[in-house]
Specification:
about 325 residues; Jelly Rolls; Arc Repressor Mutant, subunit A; 13 helices; about 50% helix
């Protein structure tokens, strides 16, 4: 595997992106004290909601941490050497083989210490989980709880999961294969292979995490029905109903409604509506389909009603949102 060759080819790009980002986000830092990074910023290649970049070199001069968050989940993997990740209230020092998974909102600042340090940022979009990965993670309660808790603001939401290196060659092999598969964007590169490698990696990390922390599997089953139901809703938001869920999951409609309300703080109707709006946002971002067609594809019968809901949720009309995406591309 030519992973070291890949690293060398990515170093120049990492330096360039680091300098560009510092200039681009300075106004946000001055105004809010932090900045927000998009998965589609600068020169990042994004394939099916996944992007992988090499972290930049260490800072030449010491400075206070520049905190930022994302519009995606970030998985930090230390291939060689180490790095430091500062949160608002704690510091996590990562060594070779360590993995850190963070939800989008968590403010942090990460930096390497030595030129030879090699750290990969693996970016995973929200839509990746809503549209496909949650199904692959349905049996992995540690990771699916972490993902869904953020997606639907469930009270048990965690900011990050830290996986100290288990000295497990399987983890290293899977991550390096994942990086190489993503980087091979020719005919042999496969988005589905990348997703399945991620699912295998998450399953392995969850098993190691449970062993290291002496966690019994039944401690992660509390939200199991909800996770499966939410995953189904996201996959079938155009046609789903309480009657369909009742038949598929063998729970009463009343129980399903209470479960959703209790843990998501939303009604079933609101949850489905939000799933449709998220679907519409992806269509607007990635296609030139008319607003009327977008509304229909997302499951709304009335395009004007759809436009009103879209603006209420995202602060922009569908047309304004599409224009913004085009300007940022």
């Amino acid at each position: 595997m030519q992973i070291d060759y890949l690293i060398e080819s990515e170093r120049e790009k990492a330096v360039r992106l680091g300098h560009t980002a510092s200039k681009k986000y300075i106004q946000q830092i001055q105004k809010y004290g932090f900045f927000t990074v998009s998965i589609e910023h600068e020169e990042n290649a994004v394939i099916n909601g996944i992007s992988i970049v090499l972290h930049g070199p260490p800072m030449k001069q010491k400075r206070p941490p520049l905190f930022h968050n994302h519009d995606y989940y970030e998985m930090v993997y230390v291939y060689r050497g180490g790095c430091v990740n500062n949160f608002r209230d704690q510091e996590v020092i990562l060594s070779q083989g360590d993995v850190l998974l963070m939800n989008p909102n968590v403010l942090h600042s990460i930096h390497t210490l030595r030129e030879e340090d090699c750290v990969f940022n693996i970016m995973l979009s929200r839509s990746l989980f809503e549209e496909s990965m949650l199904l692959l993670l349905s049996d992995n309660k540690l990771l699916s709880n972490f993902i869904v808790s953020y997606l639907y603001q469930i009270n048990t939401s965690q900011e990050f999961l830290y996986f100290p290196s288990p000295k497990n060659e399987q983890v290293d092999d899977i991550v390096t294969n994942l990086i190489y598969e993503f980087s091979d964007r020719g005919p042999t590169g496969s988005a589905s292979v990348v997703q399945h490698l991620l699912a295998v990696l998450f399953s392995l990390l969850a098993r190691i995490y449970a062993e290291q922390n002496q966690i019994h599997t039944d401690m992660h089953t509390k939200l199991s029905p909800l996770l499966d139901i939410i995953s189904y809703i996201n996959q079938n938001s155009r046609t789903v109903s309480l009657a369909v869920l009742e038949e598929k999951f063998s729970y009463s409609a009343g129980y399903i409604s209470r479960l959703i309300k209790q843990h998501c703080g939303q009604s079933f109707t609101q949850l489905v509506q939000n799933a449709k709006l998220q679907r519409a946002r992806e269509i607007l971002k990635n296609t030139g389909t008319s607003v009327v067609q977008v509304a229909e594809e997302a499951g709304f019968q009335d395009s004007q009603y759809f436009s009103r809901l879209f603006k209420e949720k995202f602060g922009l009309t569908p047309s304004q949102y599409r224009k913004l995406c085009q300007e940022q591309a």
